[in-house]
C-alpha cells in the first residue's frame, strides 16, 4: 500500500533516506545462478554518483554495496537478496535553514500534507539518493537480460535548449556516450556543454533535460495486455523517477502530427520499415528496439531567492544552499536505464511463466 515495492516476479523494495545511516533494497524473486560480486555494482553506481564531475552535486558518497543475503559463492541463490549502501557524506546542517520552509518545486509541501511530519535532511525519502538502490538492483537485472541478448543503454538527448548536432538516433555511438560526463552522443559538443553548464552554475539557476533509453535484443512477446502493457509499465516506472515530467514511447507526442501512413511501421519479411511504435504494439514487444524518451524538470533547490511559506503559513523568502545538481537529467541516464531493465526482467519472467510453452511462432519478423 505504501508503494515502496516495484515489480511482480522480480520485486524490488527500497528503503532509506538521503541522510539516514544507510539506504538499501531487498530483491525477491531473482532467478538463481546469476554470478554477482560487490564490484559488479561499481560501474553503474559511479555513472549515477554525485561528485565525480563539477557538473553535478558535490556530495561525495562512497556508494559501496554490501551484499547481505541471497548470494552464495558469488551466485544468486533464488532467496531474497538484500543490498545495503551506507550514507557516508551527508551534511544535514545545510538543511537547517529550510527545515521550516517548503521549497517551491520540491516535495516538501506534499510530504507535509500527506504525513503531517517530514525528514527535511536532504529531502529525506523524496531525495534521488533512493535511486541508488534502483540502479544497484538493475545491475543484477541487466546481467540476466544480457545473458538473453538484451542490452539497455541510455544517453542524454537534450540539455535545456541544446540538442545534439548532426545526430542520427538510429546509429548511436555508445562509446562516445560513455566517454563524457554528460552521456552526450556527440563528443564534439562537449566543450559547448561544459561552457553552458559552467555559466548555468554561476548564475545559480538550473535547467531541464531529456534522456533517451534504447533496449536492444528484446524478443517479440514481452508485455501483458491489458493492464500490464509493456509501454504502460515503462511509463509508470520512468515516471516514478524523481523530477520526471514526461515519458514518450517511440514517436511519442510527435505521433500527434503524423499521418497513419507515416506512423504505421510497415512490415516486410525482412523487417519493419520504421519504429515509430518504439518496439511495442498492443502492449507487447515487437522484437524491435524499445525506445523511450524521458523529460526531466529543472532542479528546484536554488540559491536564487524565491517566494514560499513557512510551517506557520507565513510568506517567506527561501534560499537553498548546500550541494545540488544544476541539471538532474544528467545523472538520471543510468537511473532511466535501470527502470527499463527492471521492467524488462519482470515482464520477461512473467512471459516465461505464462507462455513458456508456446515456443517460436512463424513468421518471425527480424527486429
Ligand atoms: C538524479 C537526480 C538528482 C536530483 N538531485 C536533486 C538536487 O540536487 N536538488 C533538488 O532539489 N532536487 C534534485 N532532484 C529532484 C528531486 O528529487 C525531486 O524534484 C523532488 O523529489 C520532487 O519530486 P518531483 O520533482 O518528482 O515532483 C534530483 C532528481 C534526480 C533524478
The CATH class name reads Alpha Beta
Question: Compounds present?
Answer: flavin mononucleotide
Q: How many structural domains are formed by the residues?
A: 1
Main β-sheet description = 5 strands, antiparallel
- The CATH topology is Chorismate synthase, AroC fold
How much helix is in the residues?
25-40%
Uncertain segments: none
Structural class: alpha+beta
The fraction of residues assigned to DSSP E strands is 15-25%
Q: Which outline best applies? A: globular
Q: What separation lies between the terminal Cα atoms?
A: 39 Å
Count of DSSP H/I helices = 8
CATH architecture: 4-Layer Sandwich
Pathway: Metabolic intermediate biosynthesis; chorismate biosynthesis; chorismate from D-erythrose 4-phosphate and phosphoenolpyruvate: step 7/7
Function: This reaction introduces a second double bond into the aromatic ring system.
Enzyme class: lyase
Protein name: Chorismate synthase
Structure description:
By secondary structure, this protein is α+β, with helices and mostly antiparallel strands. Helix 1 crosses helix 8, helix 3 (131-146) packs across helix 8 and helix 6 packs antiparallel against helix 8 (328-355). The mean pLDDT is 97. The protein is built from eight helices and 17 strands. The two termini are 39 Å apart. Bound molecules: flavin mononucleotide (FMN). Flavin mononucleotide (FMN) binds at residues 57, 106-107, 123, 126-128, 241-243, 297, 299-301, 324-325, 328, 331-332, 335.
Amino acid at each position: 500500500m505504501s508503494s515502496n515495492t516495484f515489480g511482480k516476479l522480480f520485486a524490488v523494495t527500497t528503503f532509506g533516506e538521503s541522510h539516514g545511516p544507510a539506504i538499501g533494497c531487498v530483491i525477491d524473486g531473482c532467478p538463481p545462478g546469476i554470478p554477482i560480486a560487490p564490484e559488479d555494482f561499481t560501474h553503474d553506481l559511479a555513472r549515477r554518483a554525485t561528485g565525480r564531475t563539477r557538473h553535478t552535486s558535490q556530495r561525495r558518497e562512497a556508494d559501496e554495496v554490501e551484499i547481505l543475503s541471497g548470494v552464495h559463492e558469488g551466485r544468486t541463490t533464488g532467496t531474497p537478496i538484500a543490498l545495503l549502501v551506507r550514507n557516508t557524506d551527508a551534511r544535514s546542517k545545510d538543511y537547517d535553514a529550510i527545515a521550516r520552509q517548503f521549497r517551491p518545486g520540491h516535495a516538501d509541501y506534499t510530504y507535509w500534507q500527506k504525513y503531517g511530519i517530514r525528514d527535511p535532511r536532504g529531502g529525506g525519502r523524496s531525495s534521488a539518493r533512493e535511486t541508488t538502490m534502483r540502479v544497484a538492483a538493475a545491475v543484477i537485472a541487466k546481467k540476466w537480460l544480457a545473458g538473453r541478448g538484451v542490452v539497455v543503454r541510455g544517453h542524454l538527448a537534450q540539455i535545456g535548449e541544446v540538442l545534439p548536432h548532426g545526430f542520427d538516433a538510429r546509429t548511436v555511438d555508445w562509446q562516445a556516450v560513455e566517454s563524457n560526463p554528460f552521456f552526450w552522443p556527440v563528443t564534439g559538443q562537449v566543450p559547448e556543454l561544459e561552457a553552458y553548464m559552467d555559466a548555468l552554475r554561476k548564475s545559480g539557476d538550473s535547467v531541464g533535460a531529456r534522456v533517451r533509453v534504447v533496449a536492444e535484443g528484446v524478443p517479440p512477446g514481452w508485455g501483458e495486455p491489458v493492464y500490464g502493457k509493456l509501454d504502460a509499465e515503462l511509463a509508470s516506472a520512468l515516471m516514478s523517477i524523481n523530477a520526471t515530467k514526461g515519458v514518450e514511447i517511440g514517436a511519442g507526442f510527435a505521433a500527434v502530427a503524423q499521418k497513419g501512413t507515416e506512423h504505421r511501421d510497415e512490415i516486410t519479411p525482412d523487417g519493419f520499415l520504421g519504429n515509430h511504435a518504439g518496439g511495442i504494439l498492443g502492449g507487447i514487444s515487437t522484437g524491435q528496439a524499445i525506445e523511450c524518451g524521458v523529460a526531466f524538470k529543472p532542479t528546484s533547490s536554488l540559491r536564487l531567492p524565491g517566494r514560499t511559506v513557512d510551517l506557520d503559513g507565513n510568506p517567506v523568502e527561501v534560499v537553498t544552499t548546500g550541494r545540488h545538481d544544476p541539471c538532474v537529467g544528467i545523472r538520471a541516464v543510468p537511473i532511466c536505464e535501470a527502470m527499463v531493465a527492471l521492467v524488462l526482467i519482470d515482464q520477461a519472467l512473467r512471459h516465461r511463466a505464462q507462455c513458456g510453452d508456446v515456443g517460436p511462432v512463424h513468421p518471425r519478423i527480424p527486429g
